[in-house]
Design goal:
With about 230 residues, the protein is of the alpha+beta class. The chain is built from five helices and eight strands. Helices cover about 45% and strands about 20% of the residues. It is rod-shaped, with a radius of gyration of 50 Å.
Length: about 230
């Protein structure tokens, strides 16, 4: 029968479990727990606690790995979100640029005849028809489109962007002397010229029609188109 008391055995059980006690003490403890259910249960609890400790460690490792994976995913998600944000911002900026160019550069609006004033229609020595055009609204004209129908009617249509500008008005297409070369138009279009209009075909301003006799251009006007 074990000579050790239960309180002594229970103090020694951790040393016994870790196998750091003497051989004699180990023998005494083993003899004691054979007959003492209380001390035997204490030893089993030590084993259970050790098992739980290992299990908790592994669980903590698993949870730590999950947190690392979550952090990596979060960082990747932030990077993807940032890249998407840059892409969206670039797309919006490009769209705004296109809209701006469309509003300020694309010549899609026909100047109404109400603001067009044609004066000083005459003929140069080389046969070209010359005239002075002015937009009374003070806004510039960016482009003149030429349209010739099958009857030989020539339409010079001034066009602007949606957003009008006054820049260059005094020296631009909105306030200047210009000319029409009937011979060149005949050669390019292959039709005889019946009339020349300024403005849209819906409401044009007549400059010249076949059979009209025009006055000779003044020396001042002639000088603007004489390059010899």
């Amino acid at each position: 029968m074990s000579k050790l008391q239960c309180d002594v055995v229970r103090d020694l059980l951790p040393l016994y479990y870790d196998n750091v006690c003497s051989t004699a003490t180990k023998g005494e403890i083993e003899t004691h727990i054979v007959t003492c259910s209380g001390c035997k249960q204490m030893l089993e609890k030590l084993k259970d606690q050790e098992y739980l400790s290992i299990e908790i460690i592994e669980k903590n490792k698993l949870e730590g790995n999950e947190l690392k994976s979550l952090a990596a995913f979060w960082n990747q998600s932030k990077a993807r979100a940032f890249a998407k944000g840059l892409l969206v911002a670039a797309s919006v900026f490009s769209l705004l640029i296109l809209i701006y160019l469309g509003l300020t550069q694309w010549n899609i609006v026909t100047v109404p005849s109400e603001v067009i004033r044609i004066t000083d229609i005459s003929q140069l020595r080389d046969g070209k028809i010359v005239y002075h055009v002015k937009m009374t609204d003070g806004f510039n004209v960016n482009q003149i489109n030429y349209k010739v129908n099958s009857d030989g009617d020539v339409y010079m249509v001034p066009v602007r962007p949606l957003i009008k500008s006054k820049q260059g008005y005094q020296k631009g297409l909105a306030n200047m002397y210009d000319f029409v070369d009937l011979e060149q138009i005949r050669a390019n279009q292959g039709v005889g010229i019946r009339a020349v209009y300024y403005g849209s075909p819906e409401k044009p301003i007549l400059i010249w029609k076949k059979g009209d006799e025009l006055p000779t251009a003044s020396d001042m006007v002639e000088a603007q188109f004489h390059f010899d």
